[in-house]
Amino acid sequence: GINAEYGQTDITQVLLPLPGYDVVLPDNCCREFFEEVLQGDGMSLEDFKGSLGKEFNVSGAYRNVVFKPTEFEFDIIKYNDENEKLISTDMDRILEKKFERLEKGDRTAVRLQFTLPKSCYATMLLREIRRHDGL
User: Fold this and answer.
1) What is the DSSP string of 52-103?
2) Could you tell me the pTM of the whole model?
3) Where are the beta strands (DSSP E) in 12-125?
4) Residues 32-53: tens digit of each pLDDT
5) What is the average pLDDT across 99-105?
6) Disulfide: which of 32, 61, 98, 114 matches 69 by Cβ 3.0-4.6 Å?
């Protein structure tokens, strides 16, 4: 199996190639897939070297399939009114307004705070969190 051949691999170490003239694709099903898709459009991997014009002169890149957020924090917030302010805003901080939150209420919210690198989207993280039962 894969683990026996390559050792234990963390999913965050897996890269997805974005085809281009600087990207070296492995000689496996990944390369075959890209070649098949490009061939369906009358193209080849060589076309990324600019033979079809400058709009196809693409260097490519490697992207991680999965990123783990850093500086991840959460709070459970209880509240009553759906229009109630649940977090302090940047303007509150600038004006040095004290933000007080009640510790009880009939409704529950979760406040998340985290950092993601460029080209990662918080909406994707939230979608994955919501996939779990109980949310």
Assistant:
1) T-GGG----EEEES----EEEEEEEEEES-TTS--S--HHHHHTT------S
2) 0.59
3) 15-18, 61-64, 70-79, 107-115
4) 998 999 899 888 888 887 766 6
5) 75
6) 114
